[in-house]
Amino acid sequence: MTATLFIDGAWCSATAGGTRQIHCPADGTFVAEVDEAGPEDTIAAIRAARTSFDAGVWAQSPASARGDFLLKVAAGLRERKEEFARAEALDTGKRMVEARLDMDDIAACFDYFGKLAGQHTGRIVDAGDPNINSRIEVEPIGVCALITPWNYPLLQAAWKIAPALAAGCSFVLKPAELTPHTAILMIKLLDDLGLPAGVANLVLGAGATAGGPLSTHEDVDLVSFTGGLETGRLLAANAAGTVKKIALELGGKNPNIVFADADFDAALDNALNAAFVHSGQVCSAGTRLILEESIAERFTEEFVRRAEGIRLGGPFDDTAETGTLISAAHRDKVHAYVEAGIAEGARLRTGGTFGEGDLAGGYYYLPTVLDRVVRGMSVVRDEAFGPVVTIETFTTEDEAIAIANDTIYGLAGAVWSSEAGRGERIAKRLRHGTIWINDFHPYLPQAEWGGFKQSGFGRELGPTGLAEYQEMKHVYHNLTPAVTGWFPEH
Ligand SMILES: NC(=O)c1ccc[n+]([C@@H]2O[C@H](COP(=O)([O-])OP(=O)(O)OC[C@H]3O[C@@H](n4cnc5c(N)ncnc54)[C@H](O)[C@@H]3O)[C@@H](O)[C@H]2O)c1
Ligand SMILES: C[N+](C)(C)CC=O
């Protein structure tokens, strides 16, 4: 597969001829070879986006037309769902059933922003003078750099592409280097549906090289980034050089608090899902299980027993319940956190090893549970981004809240209790961007998503997810211009 970069309405190869081979992490099978962009390709893509934006080919089109376009994207995705899901599954190794669910969520996201486009057009301001016409106009922010991770490749891209297009922006998309295929398919779909040249541009390749100019180039107005904390810090520092707006969707170390009065079976089942879906490679994964002391032993025993029963397998294994990690390097990193935790005194209840036998050809890591942990341990503190759960206990509400908030992150968390008042009370005091009460993981296109603290800033989805891609302009129109006399003629 060549000519996989899309710049100014044309598919092309990397100027320097670089390529990258993509392999399925579930079994190492070769998926395809794609182009590997260098900074010069990315600069060309930024220039194309700038030219199209300044020409107004999309930015000046009626918002309702942009909305209609997004609804067509949603329909196109639904028609080609299987093709998209398969591409996602091969790149990430995730199960087809999960990849299909991702495609449903992506189509819903395009529907949502398609309907929202044009609804937030500004407002009339009462200037207190009938001869002054004052209004706030909402305009697209300009050229957007959209940088996305490998765990939910198209979903995270869609949360940016849909509002960017709804707002009237032009963009350069840089997906994670390991998972480019659904981005290619998406850009093809946009092109097939007639998006003007230069509005959507695609560069593939490594962060520092292909991605480098995206946070430094003066023609980029907004960087919208989803990925790790270290990269986010770097991009924020880079973006400061040209004072460009930046939105950061970073990692999490997400608490899942279970009170003794919770529905035990529901809390247990959801705690497994919270931690082990997509092998824990989820920003909002419930990796810190925080149990009320009186149920801790029974809950932990059941949790461990059920974790040991989880079947691992590849994208097309219908019996699999979760999958592989993305790469050998990532699996090593996850394992290092587990080993560090054990060395620091944590007790390994299950897991802590690579998949063997049928799983040996992929980067599988067994669902892992550690208890007897303390808060300073790296496995409790840092985002391992794998199927690793630590168990802590509490005796009072205040203690549960203190444990749950004791993290530099603030992405998501959950509380389980049959007392509605307690759920609400705790939700109010948790410093995380999404709180689930008696649930875990749902997100809605119409509800803002994002982090407190070092999980980032800015919001995706919901009306604010569109506003991120807009500028506000105050237009003050004096209907009766007159001499002010402030500086009289001498
Ligand atoms: N908050 C959220 O909604 C959310 C959602 C999904 C994933 N995440 C986070 O993403 C992380 C996992 O993803 P990852 O390992 O791909 O993250 P990463 O930070 O390594 O990479 C993310 C993207 O940034 C690019 N990149 C890296 N360096 C760059 C640079 N100097 N300039 C431009 N681009 C650069 C990468 O190539 C990739 O496309 C986890 O921390 C996870 O929690 C957060
Ligand atoms: C944002 N979400 C939950 C879809 C994926 C996070 O990794």
TrEMBL record:
Q: Which Pfam families match?
A: Aldedh
Q: Which residues form the active site?
A: 249
Q: Which UniProt keywords apply?
A: NAD, Oxidoreductase
GO molecular function ontology, one term from the record:
betaine-aldehyde dehydrogenase (NAD+) activity
- What domain of life does the UniProt record list for this protein's source? Bacteria
Q: In which pathway does it act?
A: Amine and polyamine biosynthesis; betaine biosynthesis via choline pathway; betaine from betaine aldehyde: step 1/1
* EC number, UniProt record: 1.2.1.8
Protein name per its UniProtKB record? Betaine-aldehyde dehydrogenase
Source organism per entry reads: Leucobacter exalbidus
